[in-house]
What we know:
The protein is an alpha/beta fold.
Amino acid sequence: MSQFELWRLCRASLTRYGVMNSCRLLIDDYLFDLKHGTRTAGTYSKNGIEKSNPNLKGTVVQYQGTPSRLFQCAMKDLDSSVLKGDFIDFGCGRGKVLLMAFDYSFKKLYGVELCEKLAKQTEQNLENYGAKKRKKASANICLGDARFFLIPPTASVFFFYNPFTWSIFEQVVENILESLRRHPREARLIYINDQHRKELEKKKMQCVFRGSELRMNYSVWKPLVSLDEKDFRVVEECNCHGFNKGHSP
């Protein structure tokens, strides 16, 4: 993390979370990267992300890694049945959440990212993490607009650290619900900094848990899908092809 990034992160964190929680967040980022030989800390501006697709200007937010304590709190509130499918991080940034997801029993990990620079940093972090752990760290990094990512039929946990505005989020949620109609299964949606709770409640999503850690709100949602629904929609197939697919180290 550069000195400028550190200063910017400290200023934003102090304003939002206060002194004590800001210190905990910075220590969390530093210790995580030190332990795993990665570089996930710091922020990445929304302007930098928007350059990847000017048509999406005003619909994305800046990148900041998810605190490990917050991730662990959200994960412990999941039913064990959903830990056996695939895990998808929408707006995976530098890949910190994917690296933490390796500690669970998911079959496959997917990271969806709009910004090519961040996607490449995720790939590098996967390589460094695997080298540090002396084991293969494999994840599918998919570069492109999250609205056109085809949900795998075995995906069971969907992670969002408030990566975009509701106009994008709404379409992604619709795609998740469609996938569950076509391939019925248990699934959960984890939503960090859950600003669009009211909108989710109108989208056949039930909040099964809501909590707070380090002054950050998070919620876990269960999709309510009726198996006799007939309102299937055709979604353009862009599951890592149509996207640009990052390599799986």
